[in-house]
Fold:
Amino acid sequence: MEMPVPDGRILARRQEIIARLRSVLPGDGVIDDPVGTLAYECDALTAYRCRPLCVVLPRSTAEVAEVMRVCHAEGVPVVPRGAGTSLAGGALPTADSVLIGLARMNEVLEIDIGNRLIRVQAGRTNLAVTAAVEAEGFFYAPDPSSQLACAIGGNIGMNSGGAHCLKYGVTTNNLLGVTLVLHDGTIVEIGGPQMDAGGLDLLGVVCGAEGQLGIVTEATLRILPRPEGARPVLIGFSANEVAGACVADIIRAGILPVAIEFMDRPCIRACEDFAHAGYPDCEALLIVEVEGGPAEIDEQIGLIRQIASRHDPVELREAASEEEARRIWLGRKSAFGAMGQMGDYICLDGTIPVSALPATLRRIGELSRDHGLQVANVFHAGDGNLHPLIIFDANRPGDLERAEALGADILRLCVAVGGCLTGEHGVGIEKRDLMEVQFTAADLEAQMRVKDVFDPGWTLNPAKVFPLAASAARRGAAG
Amino acid sequence: MIRPSSEDDLAEIIRTAAAPLRVCGGGTRPVARAPAGEGLSVAGLTGIVLYEPQTLTLVVRAGTPLAEVEGTLAAEGQRLPFEPPDWRGLLGVDGESTIGGVVAANASGPRRVQAGAARDSVIGVRFVDGTGLVVKSGGRTMKNVTGYDLVKLMAGSRGTLGVLTEVSLKLLPAAGAVATLVVAADDPGAAVSVMQSALSSPHDVTGAAWLPGTGVLVRVEGLAASVAYRSEKLALRLDAIGVERDPGRNVTLWQDVASVRPLQGRSGDLWRFSLRPSEAPRVAARLGADVVLDWGGGLLWTVLPAGKDARALARPYAGHATLMRADRPTPHAVFEPEPPAVAALTRGLRARFDPRAILNRGLMD
Structure:
């Protein structure tokens, strides 16, 4: 992965920069020793590592603003980091950057049940947002798999999704406002407790901009009353095509399940070996979950049973108890752990129109054979968000490169069938060089103009999202 | 009025334009001040590009009439989630709303509280910016975080950053059944507390509004048994005085809300406030005029005597006010003035996307 050459002038001023940062962040808020900064050299995309110039751990918006003023004055790049769970290298530092960690900013600032909102500091974890309101019967809907660890600031940067998007949408649909610290330390409020924008929808473009437009330090989030209950059904099929057709029929029938999860045979087998959830031996498996009161659940599941039975399911199992529901989800939720047992893996998240599902899975199978690497598929079928897991051996020379090449082919396929490179993980560095597969030069130009406005020096989260060649002139002019 | 017949045609017109252009779709969603310039209508860019009911996705050219879109979806038992409102009666205009205009105005109806705003249903756009560059953002999948989300930036930008040529939309199944509870509430304070109780229930309320003289309306939609169950639970919780289950009468009732029927035809200045819902009663009291509330109190409409500064009367409030219609030229800003640092960002974006300031110049200033 090509990264820009670190700025020698910044490296030469390292001690002065750290001293200035210490003067604005009291106590242990600045980490510059080699051991301390090692923990920040990568995120969940561990194949790429680089230690930053130093790490700062502010506790407030005001402290972030102070840090940004120093970095602006010194012309130092800044890399924001929530909890470091990015699978796309979104929080990978450069050697000449100051990494701003949000871990100490985890306070709840306001809970307003009547208006169904919560305001938190951006370092608070996703699950801890729900924890703050669940006693009142509320929850925060977007639920990325990493929700125990991932920070709201990172969720906003990547516009994170989760398993329940079909009904509840992704981060951008549940975000009401942010406090944003701009490149020069200016603090702005964008959005708020109201339900739409008074002018341009700046909130909409900040969300998902991968920390390149400013540092999100606080967020106002929509919270929702928790449904009375939920129940999953597990349906096994003899072929991927049949499972895909069943998904289409469920949606056509006017049912809106909160989740439709799809696992193919390699994934089913791996999960079964790992978690012993009692999954049937079949080609494809759906987990369909519906919500509501008992009568509502019965009504929806009755319809789903009718539809599924027209597709000759190998098995149809409805959870009759909490324990059975837990067992149905057990295999799915341990999918990534199960894959970890099979070897190292790359997790992609290309997204396709659901109508292209059977053909895409068939083609992924062919690509897998051509490249000689196993691919297991587990994904959110309701919204077409694939998660092909490419299994490889990191210790075997050339395997990572082969896996990356297969991954790139799969993502090109997703774009070719009308989909996109990433549905919820973000571009980061991982998919940066594939952006031209999906976008024209004009499309990228329009996106980079937004960056020009918010970050004229191109110092925020450098070398991510845009192909280096496409942004070279701008970065050169800024430097 | 210039009427390009294709995206390429439009791009050429914008590239070679020597004077400001007044961009419009059907012209049914004006605000109180129209931008100067020669009219540029996208009404010639019509047609459904792709409709896949089984994936809940529609791709449609921007000039396609809203009625045609809604008719096509209804035939397949689907609909636009955000319930686009018809403001013609309210704003005193004729014409035919276009889907591009709906997106450009981010026009969202009562279902905003449950299904999101128009911008939340838009998953892709194509547009021509002020330099004539043809740009796409997003696509036709529900989940897509590839690159910056210019879709949201374009939604609600009212043609000031670019002219929409095509939009992709996420759809929902139309509801098989519907019920609206009527709850007595004499004033905005009582109304907001009823609406907050409804929206805080687990019963998936898809509309919560207050019409003076009628009371609070609370809607549930979905499968028949589910609607029966939830409406009974809510009737008890809210102490409802009536339940409307007839589908046709429900349509009329919510059209009255979406089109703000009680304030139609009144002389004076029409203001739209987007607020923290619990602030609506205090804002209403300070305005001292009739109001209609939607979105659980988050949306407040009022008519004031011509020339009155609603913002000055309403302060303090979190949110914003828009002057939607004025009887005579008004000295007041149509859109809520932004704090300086935010205004600088907005100006910067306009300068980049439309450096000659030819698209709806000054409309949102």
Residues 399-416 of chain A form the longest helix (18 residues). The CA atoms of residues 346 and 404 of chain A lie 8 Å apart. Chain A has a mean pLDDT of 95.
